[in-house]
């Protein structure tokens, strides 16, 4: 039985928050998850791409087969210019398959959150609460209290802010928006050129598109370089979306049947226009009681699918530190009914940030450069994109750089499992085949 007095409050019920629920339950840590929407399973928002680094962790939690059943693997990215001419295909996903044993997979946010939620046993599943918008947090040396807009409040030992870039938990504003993005989902069957696993990009001066097709829907993002970067949050209207399409609706999304951005928009299931914030928060925790994960701690342009995957890895690194802090506190006290001290929690938060920060900064820069490359942000990026990136040797060079970072990603140190994703590149941190104590649950 886990300690009844040590309790974590998770703010945010997206993929990162639900991963935290799994990780804490496996660590025998009590929690409550607060999600402001009516459900954590919503058929809304952009589709997700899970990279091998994310798939591996979710596989350690026993979810790999369920995720494969609702997703499609990606192999090749076709590239077009604004006139629809081919710029050469990108085969980086084959490199990932050779290195780590898996292609990236695209799936809807609905299916990802459904797998994460439905796979929770009844006890932890009942601790996922909806219609709970966090309004304030107060902390002391002994614990933390979270108040919600509906008048309810929850007490615990610490708060994990997993509620996105516009987090109500984090009041630091470190993010800079250089691009704005129109995203939309539309039925894959509107065009014979689309199929599950389809991937294509349209590159050119100041704007690029990126499309991935799943089993039912296709997701397209359009990245437009702003005239001037801003740290100010901008809320766009339906009129702004329509104006955006008037300007860029002619861009081709497919090579053969000439599906245009306007065609896709007119058949959209949903769409949104937003500023793309980039940056890494300086301090991921404070007062020994509040710690950030995912987009609340770092925001990337989504061109490399880094956001969700690195949010999952944040939870892994944080859960490892919390599990170790609780284990050590229990060993010192000689009882399970113990709460780590504020100093011990602060040390765990600091170790978590140190584990993740350097990799996150590098990944953030890589995502920014990838978007700049596709939108021809500099003369060098334009030349490389037009004349160099189609060469396999050039693609291999970039994949090699990314592979060295990916191979160092963490796994849950206290969850035994099978290493199902294997390739020519060994993982630095192997999944443990056995642990001294198995994952436990609580009442």
TrEMBL record:
Its cofactor is FAD. It comes from the Eukaryota. InterPro entries: FAD-bd, FAD/NAD-bd_sf, FAD_mOase_fung. GO terms for molecular function: FAD binding; monooxygenase activity. Pfam families: FAD_binding_3. Residues 7-331 form the FAD-binding domain. Keywords: FAD, Flavoprotein, Monooxygenase, Oxidoreductase. Belongs to the paxM FAD-dependent monooxygenase family. This is 3-hydroxybenzoate 6-hydroxylase-like protein.
